[in-house]
Amino acid sequence: MRRRGRVVLSTGDHCLVADQSGDLHRCQLRRRGGRPVCGDWIDWQAQSGGAVVEAVEPRRNVIERGDFRGHPRPLAANVDRMVLVIAPTPTPDPLLIDRYRVLSRAAAIPLTLWLNKTDRLEEAQRHALLTRLSADHHRLDCLDGSARSGAGLDAIRRLIGAGTAILVGQSGVGKSSLTKALVPGVDLRVGEINRASGQGRHTTTETILVEHPGGPALIDSPGVRTLRLDHLSPGQVMAAFPDIAELTGQCQFRDCRHNGEPGCALQRARESGALPAQRIAHWARLMQETENGLADQKS
Ligand SMILES: Nc1nc2c(ncn2[C@@H]2O[C@H](COP(=O)(O)OP(=O)(O)OP(=O)(O)O)[C@@H](O)[C@H]2O)c(=O)[nH]1
Ligand SMILES: [Mg+2]
Ligand SMILES: [Zn+2]
Questions:
Q1: Same structural domain for residues 203 and 260?
Q2: What is d(CA 158, CA 30) in angstroms, rounded to the nearest whole number?
Q3: For residue 142, how far is its CA from the centre of ligand 1 (angstroms)?
Q4: What residues sit around ligand 2, an ion, with C-beta below 5 angstroms?
Q5: 175-182 and 153-160 helices cross at what angle (nearest 10)?
């Protein structure tokens, strides 16, 4: 009998699948047929040799990062919201935030920033950090609070509702802590995940989905240092910078490279302070990376 389930963890040759009552089943993958990722809906079937994945349902969306060679690699599928977690420590990386904005936009998944560990901030510090984030990042949705104290969790719970949210960001910002705070009673050690490292720290090594029956599904992912986007197109980068896209049409020369040409609207915006220099620099850098990526793919 075929049964439907959701992939909570996928490794090279098998995956863990949650059935309707939340029980987990270890399923082998068939050689043919797509390779499921965390968040996929699949059909599976118990057989004498163990359970087998029969089919992967078409995805509503999929998040694909670049692997070490810059090739797209799926991270998770069927996601309603990406939550980029930052914290006072480790220090937020503004370029990483812009990379995630491009990634979420490319997958057509709304992005929310969560400033975690506010229990470690004085009110004035919290305010200064949030003010800087909103100045540096054009129209970025931002919430804040603490996985430890519980501050702000109701707002993020409301935002996620009964949907599926993925938590992404640097190592140590509190993605797993937030997952545990939002899905009470969850055991993140399910399967082979979350091996404690020698220092007794629990750094996440696998992308895993946890859910509360009738509540949200949360996908906890391993921390990253950076995020490769060279498999995306310059147009996909442009889409995440609508304020800059609008300006590039206003340069004096249609083929302006925005590199010191006369009548460059971007240069004007930078000099007048209408756009933060950092934002323009990140845009230029990501455009360059994706243009190089295209050149690599063609050669
Ligand atoms: N003060 C404070 N500490 C927190 C909070 N959330 C998490 N931490 C601490 O920050 C450290 C890292 O938390 P994790 O939840 O493991 O971070 P992570 O983002 O999952 O890290 P990786 O799995 O390595 O990517 C732990 O020592 C947590 O106890 C918070 O809201 N306030
Ligand atoms: Mg973690
Ligand atoms: Zn220009």
A1: no
A2: 38
A3: 19
A4: 175-176, 204
A5: 80
pLDDT at residue 218, rounded to an integer: 96
Check residue 168 and give its pLDDT: 98
Phi-psi region of 79 (alpha: psi -120 to 50; beta: other; left: phi over 0): beta
Alpha-carbon gap, residue 62 to 145, rounded angstroms: 28
Q: Is the CB of 172 under 6 A from ligand 1?
A: yes
How much is the pLDDT for 188? 61
Give me ligand 1 centre to Cα 233, in Å.
34
Do 174 and 49 reside in the same domain of the chain?
Answer: no
Can you say which residues are annotated as belonging to the binding site for Zn(2+)?
251, 256, 258, 264
pLDDT tens digits along 20-62: 888 899 999 987 777 899 999 999 999 888 899 999 999 999 9
Q: For residue 181, give the ligand nearest its CA.
A: 1
Is the domain of 52 the same as that of 181? no
- Do 124 and 163 lie in one domain? The reply is yes
- Are 52 and 67 part of one and the same domain? no
Residue 264 sits in which domain range?
Answer: 234-298
Kindly state whether residues 288 and 240 are assigned to the same domain: yes
17 and 73 inside one domain: no
What is the CB neighbour count within 10 angstroms for residue 238? 18
Average pLDDT over residues 186-215: 66
Pocket lining: 117 vs ligand 1, CB cutoff 6 Å: yes
Total domain count, the chain: 3
Q: Are 177 and 256 in a shared domain?
A: no
Tokens read off for 224: 């990253």
- Whose tokens are 């719970």? That residue is 157
**Helix, strand, coil in percent for the chain, rounding step 5:** 30, 25, 45
In-domain check, residue 114 = yes
Domain membership of residue 228 (yes or no) is no
